[in-house]
Amino acid sequence: MRETGFEWRRLLKEAAYILVGSLVYAIGIDCFEAPNGLAAGGLTGLATITSAIAQASGVVLPIGAQTIAMNALLLAYVLLTTRDRDYVVRSIAGILVSGVMCDVLAPFVSSPTQGDLLLSAIWGGVFVGVGVGLVFRSGGNTGGVDIIAQLLAKGTGMPLGTLSVICDGVIVLLSIPVFSLANALYAGIALYIGGIVIDAVVDGPRTARVAYIISERHAEIANEILYEMGRGCTELQARGVWSGSPRPMLMCALGRTETARLKAIVARVDPDAIMIVSNVHEAFGEGFGQFGKNGL
Length: 296
Fold this sequence. Notes:
It is a single chain. This protein is α+β, with helices and mostly antiparallel strands and 296 residues long. The protein has ten helices and four strands, in the order ααααααααβαββαβ. The chain has helices at residues 2-33, 42-56, 63-81, 85-105, 117-137, 145-156, 160-174, 181-203, 218-229, 259-269, and strands at residues 208-214, 234-236, 249-254, 274-280. The chain has a four-stranded antiparallel beta sheet, covered by helices on one side.
């Protein structure tokens, strides 16, 4: 019974992510990007272009319906290449709900930034990024050029990330003759902002840091980290290339606010120590977040 209750809570949480994310996504498209001719990459950007062309001929071609139709063809490929049926179901839900939201919301909203391409690009990128990020957190997606990039990657051997950027760039370029060069440039800004916001929503506030410390007095530093900071510490076996002698190295994951404390400890124990601090997107385990479904 407990497992069944947990499963229902998980499903409701994922459904909420998809619904809210799709609504926010639709606001970004209908209020900021589409009314101002910003085709900011993805299949939605392509649908924005074709919708504008059709409108010039007196034909109404809804953006949401187009994206659903385009993604339906791509999902056929996904179904043939993945065994993760849960991912497929969530993706279908994300594609359908976001597409329907775009078309249902469009007649009832207006653009608060009409004519201001910079504000439209900024806020369009923010809303679309938040919306897509929330859908990503459900474990699914809203479809788009990533699937196309996967197809091209198999045939060309090029990196998937590079192909995704190229596909988005091609769609932005295709918008130039339909809208204008200025619109395409601002669409690029919206695309960039959206990517940053998606990462922020998916990763959340869980960004942490990891420190590597090389010191002759590593045992004393490790003791201070363990008992003064209350953090775990791992000793890695390293070797000096020049001397050939063993050089134990400490590795410690810590929160952003604890970096200054660690610096003070190392400086006090061994001012000649070497300390390297780098950012990490997420940290799980004791003292950090707990592992959850889909790594969230």
